[in-house]
Amino acid sequence: MTPPLADLLDTARVLALPMNTRFRGVDVREVVLFEGPQGWAEFSPFVEYPDAEAATWLAAAVDFAWNEQPAPLRTRIPVNATVPAVAAEDVAAVLARFDGCRTAKVKVAERGQRLADDIARVRAVRERMGPEGRVRIDANAGWNVDEAEHAVHALAEFDLEYVEQPCATVDELAELRRRVKHRGIPIAADESIRKAEDPLAVARARAADLIVIKAQPLGGIRRALDIVARAGLPAVVSSALDSAVGLAQGAALAASLPALDFDCGLGTASLFADDVADARPVGGTVPVTRVVPDATALARLEAPAARREWWLERLTRCHARLES
Length: 324
What we know:
seven-stranded parallel beta sheet, globular
């Protein structure tokens, strides 16, 4: 059952969280937090997403705030560092914010940049992480098949753990996987899971070796666990550039997976200059716990009135979709 809209609006806080480094085209991350019987939850679909897609994010937030979640199987989650599409000389400063992380995910295929920029960035990460560190790359569907194949060959020397969403479509992922299979570099699907009408199409097409799952975009922890079970592929839990409250939901999802074979993308609190609580990794891990926002942080990070109105109108529209 969807709770009445008034119950969400009663505690809703619209926040603007500043970033240390521009990430995914964002300098300030806007989120809505509200409190239910089980605790605080986050609603933060990216601003360009239509209401039909954003309503799934709201369903996840409502579920986390109003319903008991699956029992956790672990109390701490190992996480990766996340390196935005920064210049190679800025890599060390970014990685220094991720205490104890043994894995780094590097953004590549940034619009306006070249493959040479990606190579320099990944090289800097590999040098900083050392031979024992794990390095994965994420193209956010930025390449076509030929570009992806060329990039994988160019970056293979850095001993990649996997390549995340190199191309946009399931067919492209399947073709690329066939072409680079001899390299032994796994292909991971992200957007082809969380933005797909059929998130299991990737598994049926054998287009990926593993899947990336996120609690908010998939409608909550239970639905994400169901997708993993039905896909039959290893899963990596990641965030959607969440606040500390949203990251707590991601940690609860990771804690509920039967197997956790990869470090998770839940250390992204280190990308924020300010947050409602300190969710940065310590010793390469984050705890599995509910987060209660700090009252002074809620006041300090409150979004301007016009943005608050925009977000609450969006929440209202998405709530109507859930009710219908």
